[in-house]
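Second attempt. The first submission of ATPase AAA had a stray character pasted in from the spreadsheet, which I only caught after the job came back as garbage. Lesson logged: always re-copy from the clean sequence file. Corrected sequence (1079 aa) follows.
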Amino acid sequence: MRVAVLGAVSVCRDGAPVDLGAPKQRALLAALALHAGRPVTAGALIDLMWGDDAPPAAAASLQTYVAGLRRALEPGRPARAAATVLVTTPHGYRLDLPPDALDAHRFTAAVERVHRAVTPAPPAAGVGGLLRDLDAALALWTGPAYADLRDDGPVPAERARLDELRLVAVEDRAVLRMARGEHAAVVADLTAAVREHPLRESLAGRLALALAGSGRQADALELLRSLRERLADELGVEPGAGLRAVELAVLRQEADGPAPPVAPVVPAARAGEWPLVGRRAELAALGALLDDAAAGRTAAGVLVGEPGVGKSRLLRELTAAARGRGLAVAVGRCSQDDGAPPYWPWRGVLRDLGADLAALGAPAPGGPDAGEGARFALWEAVCGVLRAHAPLLVVLDDLHWADASSLRLLRHVVDTLPAGGLAVVGARRALPEPAGALAELGETLARHGAARIAVGGLATGEVGELWRAATGAATAPAAAERLRDRTAGNPFFLTELLRAAPGGDVPDEVPAAVGDVVGGRVARLPAPARELLRAAAVAGRRFGLDELAAAAGRPAEAVLDDLEPALDAGLVAEDDAGAFRFSHALVRDAVYAALSPARRARAHAALAAPLADADPARAAHHWLRAGPAHAGRAWRAAVRAAGSASAVHAWEEAAALLRDAALAQQTAGATPLERYEVQVALADACRWAGDRAGVDSALLAAVAQARALGDVDREARAAAGSVDGAVWIVRPHGLVLPELVAALRDVLRRLPAADSEARCRVMLALAAELYFVDAPREREALVEQGLAVARRLGDADLLGWAYGAASLATVRPATAEARYGYGRDALAAARTPRQEVAAHTMLAFAAQETGRIDRMWEHLAAARAGAERMRLASVLVGLGWLEVPWLGLQGRFAEAEQLFGYTVQQMQRTSMPQSTETPAGTAMALRMAAGAVDATMVAQMQALAPVSPLPLDASIVVLMLRAGLTAEARAWHAAHGIDLSADDWFALLNTCHAAEAAYGVGDAELGVRAYRWLAPYAGRPCCASAAVALGPVDGYLALAAAAAGDRAAADRHAVAARALCLRWGIPLAADRLDATLNT
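This time the job returned cleanly.
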């Protein structure tokens, strides 16, 4: 099978064309081919196929086109057999074809292969074969690349890359034809191309040579004169050296004179930097990002490659190009040094834009809104600065070293700035594979169609070109090949060899590792310079003169004198007065790796002392690595640095520093009180960082330290901390933390019997932690007693916390009315905006469960307004899962899908449980409302069932029935049955689905059981507590009664259900009930 995208998309199978069907089906194939071999999410496909014009049921339409395209590509595939060409993956869909099956791949490979073989004066012997290869490659084009796709997302960058390669092919073809003396034919070929690209010097130069070779010297000179004037008028620049050489050759009547290079002539390299060779495709892709920013769009890209391959050099070329085009430029560099303050690269970006991170920050930590809300406020302030400077290029280098807060801020920027003249370009190493926050950033960039630009080693010809440009001496092809094989074309390794090679000669034996080369160069330095380099390597990639002088205890002038040999050798460069950096991170790594552990520890201690007041984060970094003798100073410095990180809401970095502090305390002999305070601070940092496991671990450690102190109040405060900040059930479904339950029971036993805040908190926290323990009477007693204590004490803050904890501990259908009452009491007791938001959220949840839908919308709007103002991610997640299904039931699918995506993004930033099941259930609700359930959704729910603690058998049977898979539904029900024994937050939805399943498969006994269970909840919506609303319970009572054979009851409940649908404004639910009852 062959797929063509160099024009309108087409497919040939066994030499015969394949009918691809509707235009959108063709666009789907083009979108998949654009990512050939890689999975594409449904959202990304919808964006590529429809853009901003996606219909409300785009997801359902996409499924239809996927099914149709599969039939076209694999017409002989048996029913229900797995697809082998358009395959489903956990991350979306993938076109599973060999690379050669795609014409764009074959074209790229052919052009690059020929281009490597073309020289300015190719020998005539090999020209014929190269021309045939180019002619065949160019013949693949039948129109604009990816003509079936909109000019959005990654499409423009790929088109630009292919168009650039097409021009390279045209130019190389001209070189080859002129080598055979076919100058007149080349004139005909290139004239139209030059009109289309009038400022492309290399193209005009080749046309000038062809004109001169055809005896048209005057026309050639006129072309060059016209281009010179145009460059001056439009760009304000002179022609490059290549074009000037062509002009001289024409004047001398040397028709076969020097051909201009395809790549732009690189300006004279500044001291310490080598000429840029190759990289045409990478520069074209980066240029496309600048095109987007200049046109008022937002674009993103990331350069990926091994260390030393030239990512940073490409970024420097990009920034120069952006400034030349009038864009503002802001550059941030991530620090290899773990001691860099949080948001280090963003501090550089903001500094370039005249802003300061501290000035943008929200209120200082410690208040009730110091967590997620303040952090989002800071992020929004940064976005405001970026918007104000558009069109803007933001460059973030070395993302593999970025702190988690910086990466999450970058995700926020990409998510929230969909338009507005911004190009964001980063660079990272290819290995190790991204994990944690870096992996999350990769998913976000992929979702937004960011360009992933792989940067590989130089080709053999480019290795020789670099050597010749740097030394003035040509290398033999065999020597260049040897260098290429040993260095893998890594430009940094090559330039280090150049610096080390005597007289610029290619060494006979190339060292096996770059560290060997750097080590040899360092060894040739005077001893004082070597010592300073070792101290600087401990300081980090960048270091200050005063820093080194203070650590060495010597005058700065003397240190600068000793550093001069390293500067002259190119191992170190000066960024600014008194500010230095290693020429490359690999140089710093090589010097640092050569130090013994003892020497490193002593150097860290020497560097730490002068930094204590000026830079707490770096001081902590050095003290923590200075060895056991400095453990006392280390943990205190780490706590201070964590405070600085918390001040800018960098909770991940604060948590990491506090973990380091706790570890250092073990060596330093810290007191139990000191250890307790560190663990409590760590629990807070983990809470706001979304690290639930970290919260639990820190709280248990704090309980142990408080017990060692004999302080039961502190023990109570730590043990009850698991409920703080929660808006939903504390644990994932079915999970209990026995250690924390035991600690809470023990503390409750030892607390005085008199009313106290500690006793109230412990009782309610224990009730919440017992949610999935089969002890309903104990849980209800603890809630009743805890609320009674809170009411008697009368403290507003405690009352608000207590009502929230009581709601978390008692979520089940039978308590919905009581929980609505808790919400009213909490609202009456609220004294702060944060408490009001919490109360409105409780009321919105309980209003849904009790059928007060008008009230639900009122409280939802009030809660959302406050949560958005304070950026309370956990609250926004809960409200999102509440609202999305109702938007679907009202037929507002575009709004529902938009809010669904936003809520998923917010949930990724919290530690809320059910992070898989709730989005899956909400997606199920939307598909049900749209009548778009199909076999793919059934398969997804079946795949979730074995790994989910929720009882999903009833839902699977219902999905099968709605997808028309009645036989499969009966088989699944017969094999798995349906369990109705649970009485928790999920029980109502599970039983409603059991009622529909009973009707669909004809199980009268199940219908009786479901009817009996559901009868008390008539008049309410079917839902999973605060999520997955599916319409009135009365509709499911109608189905249960019909399954049980009671047609009169079924009719009565159906009438009630239709009335509720009308009152609640959800006609789709009534239509679905009618359709189901009529089958």
